[in-house]
Amino acid sequence: MDKELLIKKWLNNDLTEAEEKAFKQLDDYAFNKEIIETAKMFKASTFTNINDFETFKANYQAQDTPVKRLQWLSPMLKIASVIVIALGVYFTVFSFNNTKINTLASQKTTIELPDQSEVVLNALSTIEYNKKDWDNNRTLKLDGEAYFKVAKGKTFDVITTQGKVTVVGTQFNVKQRDNYFEVQCYEGVVKVKSDTIIRQLLAGDTYRLLGGKFTENKTLQTMSEWTKNTSVFNAIPIKEVFAELERQYNIKVTIVNTNSDRLFTGGFTHNNIENALISITQPMNLTFELTSSNQVIINGQNN
Prior knowledge:
The chain folds into 3 domains: 3-61, no CATH class; 109-228, Jelly Rolls, CATH 2.60.120.1440; 229-303, Phage tail protein beta-alpha-beta fold (3-Layer(bab) Sandwich). By secondary structure, the protein is an alpha+beta fold. The protein starts with a helix and ends with a strand. Strands 1, 2, 3, 4, 5, 6, 7, 8, 9, 10, 11, 12 and 13 form a 13-stranded mixed sheet that branches. Helix content is 27%, strand content 36%.
C-alpha cells in the first residue's frame, strides 16, 4: 500500500484495521508517532494555522537534512561590534568636549571664549571649538563671518574651508562665504594662509580672495561695521551684497535684467529693509519690489 496515503489517512484517523496494521509495520512508525505525542503537549496559539498534509510531508522529508550554520558570520559580527563600539566611544569623548554655536538669519551673538577672548558672530554663521583643551590649543573652526578680539597668550588659530588665520593677541574680522574669503586686521598682527598665498597683515590691511582672485587693500575702519548693524562693501559684486542682505533680513532676493557681477561700493543698515534696499539700488540705478514679507525682486535695464 502507498506509504504517503497511509500517513495521510493516519493523520486523519481514517485507517481501516488492515491499513493500521500495515502502517505500524512501517520502518518510521515510531518516529511518526513520537511527533504526534509530542505535539499533544503544546497548546496551539490562536494565531497558528494547522499544517496541511503537504506541509507535513515537506517537513517529514527534510527530517534527515542537516542544518549547516553560517559560522563565518560570528567573527564578522564580532569585528563589526568592536568597530561600532569604538566609534561610539570616539564621538562621545571627543564630540562631547566641543562647543558649537550657530546663528540664524538676521541674528548676531557675542561669545566669550575660555581665555576671555571675544567673538561676535554674524548672521548664518557657525563657530566650533574644544572648550576643555582651550588652554593648550586656542583653535576654532569658522563657517561664515566673525569679528575677533583675541586676548594675549598662545597662538590663536581660526580655521575655515578657504584659509587659516593665525594671531597672538589682536582684533580682526574673518569672512568666509562660498567663493569669498576676506580677513581685515584692525589691531596687532595677523598671519593669513590660503593655499600658497601667505600674508602678514598689520592694522588696516585687508586680505581678500574673491572668485579665486587675490587682492590686497587698505581699510580706515577701526572695527567691523556689521557689529554696529551696518554692512559695508568696497568694490564687491552686487550678488554678494544681496546675499548679505538676505542673511541680515531673512529674505529671498531675485535679481532680473541686470548683471549680478557689477561692483558695488557702499553699505546698508540692518534695522529697516526698505532703507537698506534704497541704499543698494539707487547708486546702481536699480529698482526693487517687495512682493511679500520675505520676497524681493531687484530689477534693472540689462545693466
